[in-house]
Amino acid sequence: MIVGGAVVKNGNKNSHFVIENKVPVLREKDIMSEPEANSPCRRIYFVIQLMYIDEKNLGEHHQLYWKLTRDVLISVPSMFPMIIQISEHISSNRYYQALRVTRKLIEYEQEVLNYVRNAGRGLPKSA
User: Fold this and answer.
1) pTM for this model (two decimals)
2) Predicted pLDDT at 71
3) What angle do CA 49, 41, 60 make, to 5 degrees?
4) Where are the alpha helices (DSSP H) in the chain?
5) Alpha-carbon gap, residue 59 to 62, rounded angstroms
6) Residue 54, pLDDT score
7) How far apart are CA 36 and CA 60, in angstroms?
8) Is residue 69 within 8 Å of 51, Cβ to Cβ?
9) Which of 27, 20, 67 is nearest to 43 (CA)?
């Protein structure tokens, strides 16, 4: 779990936390490690995650986000509606909501990859 930039790991016993102020919180299921960011849309997720937990480098993360989304849209223009939705959340500093939509973008990316892989079946192999 990440709470306000601090990584919190559960010990032997269950714990209950009450967070009294507004800080970024990511549960383990929402955290993506850098090695897991191994596709274009996963890299977008990772950079949004950094926006959410690393506010001091927000400008750099925003620049990388716009570069990544531009590259994705050049390759797969059909992702435009989801990218717009994600960008609106980012513009309003709603990074957690942007992460949720980006999960859907990752699922769509996988569907596109599966379609491309399956479309190649039955074609003769080149020599």
Assistant:
1) 0.80
2) 95
3) 45
4) 40-53, 58-75, 80-91, 95-119
5) 5
6) 85
7) 20
8) no
9) 67
